[in-house]
Amino acid sequence: MHHTERLIFFPICLEHEADLFELHNDPLVRETIFKNKPQSAEDVSSWLDRYLAQWRKQDFGTWMVYEKANGDARFIGRCGVREYEGTNNLEFAYAFFQLRAGQGLGPEAARFVITHALKNSSKEKIVGFIDHGNARAQRAAEKLGLRFIDDRWYYGRMCKYYEMTREEYFSQPHHRTDL
Questions:
Q1: How far apart are CA 37 and CA 169, in angstroms?
Q2: Which of 14, 52, 87, 103 has the fewest CB atoms in 10 Å of its CB?
Q3: Beta carbons of 119 and 82 less than 8 angstroms apart
Q4: pTM summary value
């Protein structure tokens, strides 16, 4: 377990499957990530397998994110990185419940996850693929310091491709160095 000012992070594990199912079927998450397709238990299990494989391979991956609330912790989403397809780069993604989106929690979670991954690897860049029309995700990427490079094919669809080098990330004043 790790934490920031407002958030608590747990590396994803099998016990998180029910929470992940609920998250992946949240209206906002389903719309922006899954094109409004309801996610089955099998879909979620497949995602969980990918997340767990990343943790087994490296000392980083997808984290379950909880918000500190009145002495308790409330599950609000997931945030993580994974190795990007045969490169020395990390692909970043996060998903928060609709009720917790847009409150600055995503960037706080992202900074923790990216810092943790870069400090535990020699990866060169953080990259992200964002669907056209997902203005919220585009703004979040830019707030983190990722810059739009071009449009690229990503799993059968054209997406906006963003990236940031390790040096660019660690030159920003808001990253955490005490992790």
A1: 34
A2: 14
A3: no
A4: 0.89
Token pair recorded at residue 114: 């990216």
How far apart (Å, rounded) are the C-alpha atoms in residues 11 and 18? 15
Residue 162: in which H helix or E strand, if any? strand 157-165
What digits encode the pLDDT tens for the residues 146-179?
999 999 999 888 999 999 999 999 998 765 444 4
**φ, ψ dihedrals at 63, nearest 5°:** -115, 145
Q: What whole-number distance in Å separates Cα of residue 115 and Cα of residue 120?
A: 9
User: What is the layout of strands, in order, in the sheet containing 2-3?
Assistant: 2-3, 7-11, 62-69, 72-83, 89-96, 125-131, 157-165, 147-154
Beta-ladder partners of 127: 91, 163
Give the residue from 44, 7, 51 showing the smallest Cα distance to 26: 44
Query: Residue 114: which H helix or E strand, with range?
Result: helix 105-119
77: amino acid identity, one letter: G
